[in-house]
Structures are given as structure tokens and as C-alpha cells.
Amino acid sequence: MNSLNTIENKSSATARSDIDGLIRRQKSGCTLEQVFYRSSEIHQLEFQRVLSPQWLYVDHESELPEPGDFLTYEIGEESIIIVRGSDRQLRAFFNVCRHRGSQICLEKSGNTRRFVCPYHAWAYDLEGNLLSARHMADDFEQSQHGLHRCQVEVLEGLVFISLASRGNAEFDQIRHNLLPYLKPHGLTQTKVVHREVYPTHANWKLAVENFRECYHCMPAHPEYTRVNDYVRAGERGSKAYQAMAEQFAEAARRKGRKSGVEYFPLPAQPHQIWRHPIQEGYKTLTRDGSPAGPLLGEFEEYDGAETASFMGALSYLYATNDHATTFRFTPKSPELTEVVVSWLVREDAKEGVDYDLDHLRWMWDVTTIQDTKIINDNQKGVNSSRYSSGPYSEHELSTANFIAWYLWRLSMPSFRR
Ligand code: FES
Ligand SMILES: [Fe+2]
Hints:
alpha+beta, 7-stranded antiparallel sheet, Rieske Iron-sulfur Protein, globular
């Protein structure tokens, strides 16, 4: 009987000790055993121990411009409503009626003055207060039955939620660390102009592992490699790219801007951000390097670089001088991950005048289609009876670090929600 069957056929308490044993026997610097990519028990446990303590990027604030604008985000067993109140503040609530627990908001997005539960019509205002509840006893305390709040934070227009009810204090540090890199891009003055959903038939960790290494870039991404010189430079140790990067760092220093890489090993949410030049002669990440839209934020001219960040396990960002792309990974089941990519340009840009959608989305669309295929094929191979844990190369250090951190978090007591 393999480990997967062993875990799923046992009582929960025994299964937990099996998982602890499994964690201990994973080889450092190697991929995980098959069970980590397939088991629904581990999938559930990692929500509690690894993902719930994180701040998760959901969307860009420009999607909720007016009071009453709302969207819902489903992750794990949770559905979260994010809504702009009449005071223009963003708030988030668990989508759970305080009467008998029905979901109250069944739409993905919209605009409303109140949320009315479809079951017995309890009504809540945009601040989550219970406004009315029919035929309740005289001593029913309406004020005690507001919606449960969900933590929400906004960083340069990027909206994050945390499923933890308290004790999730790392956001201030994340903001402090990422802001110096993000600020020049003026992301608060951007808007989402395109969104693509890439259903990925693989465990979320395979998607993350793939996203954190460029060992696969030469064989799998000819287009990405063509517009990102660092890929070939990394393979061959190119002096020319090194010289370009040093020149770029010097110019950035003169302007008081960031360059290079910084890694922040926070316990619940390690994150990383970097800024480096792309391809000689390329202004931005397009097929031929020509502009994708009007310059963003503080930029007065192109410097031919990108800012990129692993903001958390499921949240990623790439930004050049004229556009930004966000990635949101949502684990849907042990072998299904929803990857949503959003493209942002300056808020006053007009399609067909200031930007062309195909030109704008070309690189990350073609690259994400390729990634989806290689990740799907990865899962198929991992599912084979002959799969066994394999060693990471020196070009997969970030992936190996992610797996080491993941195992450490999974071995910790469950996070209190
Ligand atoms: S469950 Fe919502 S009103 Fe009854
Ligand atoms: Fe890739």
C-alpha cells in the first residue's frame, strides 16, 4: 500500500503522525514525494498551516472604484467578499450568513447597496452590520450578528486578504520591504485591462516550483528567453549582461532607485523582490521591445528594466516602465490550480490609441500557456508509479528554498483562525 492510501485510510489522528513522519523523511534539496502532490489530507493541512497565515493577493483596487462595488474570492473552503463601503474604505467579510450560515453573496462581482441573504433574507450593509432580520425574538441582538470580518490590506493598489482572524502582523513589513521598488511604478494609478484564467491540472506546489526557477526557460520559453537576457546570461555566465546590470545599478543609484535582489525571510511569508535590465535595446517586455503603453508613475523615460516580486507563495508581480502583470495562484483541489493573470496599464490609457491588447499581453500569455503545459505534464509524471523524489540543480535554488520553507511550515502546529 503506498503512502497516499495509508494516510487516507486511517483515522485523522494517526494520519497526522504519518504526515509528520513523511515530512521528516523528505530529502533536502530534492522534490517532494508523490503523496505531497496528491493527497487531499495534506491539501487540507497545508491550508491551515502554510496558506492561511499568508497575505494573499486577490485583485487590483481599480476593480472596485465606487461605493458598493464588490467582488468575491473563493479559496479552500472560504468565500470572501471584498467591498468598497459608503465611506470609500475597502472591507472584506467571510461570505457566511450569521443566521444559518448560507453564503449571502452568490455573484462574482457587482455593485450593491446591501447584501441580502438568499435563504431567509437577512440583510447586511456594506460595513457588514446586520440591518434587518425578519421575525426574530424580542431579545435578539441584531448588533451582535454582523458579518465576520476578514483582514484586508492594500499595497500600491494591490489588494491582499488574510484568512487568519488575528496575529497576522507581517503586512507592515511586507509593505516596508516592497514599497521602495513598487513606488516608481505608480501602480495606484493603473487599471486592469485584461485578465486571463489558466486552469492548471496540477498541484499548486508544482505551479509554484515552476514559477520560481528559470532552469526551464531555455528549453520551454523561447519567446521569454528572447526578451530576457538574464536567462542566457545565467546559462553561460555572460560578461556582457553582467556589465549591463552593473551599468543599470549605477544609473539606478544616481536616481535613488532600487536595483538588484532582496530576499526577506519572514516566517509566515518569505518574499523577494528584484529589479534588473531585460534585453539590450528592449524598452519593455514585448515581442520587439517597443512600448506597450504610456509610461507609468515616476518614469519619464524607459530604463529597459523590470521589477519582479514573489510576494508570497501564491502572489506574483512583474512590472516594467509601462505595464504590470500580476499572477494569482489559487489551489482548487490537490491536482487543480487556478492561475489568473491580470495586465495593468496607466489608468488614463485608451485601448487602440495608447495600447494594443495583443501587443501588451503577448509575452506573459505565450509564456503562461507554455508553463501550464509543462506543469500539467509534470503532474502526470509525478502520478506515475515510477516517480521518485529528484534532485534540484544549482539553478533551482529558489525552488529548493520554497520547498524547505513549505515543509517547515507544514510541520508546525496549525495556525489558529
Ligand atoms: S441563512 Fe441567511 S437568512 Fe437564513
Ligand atoms: Fe516558466
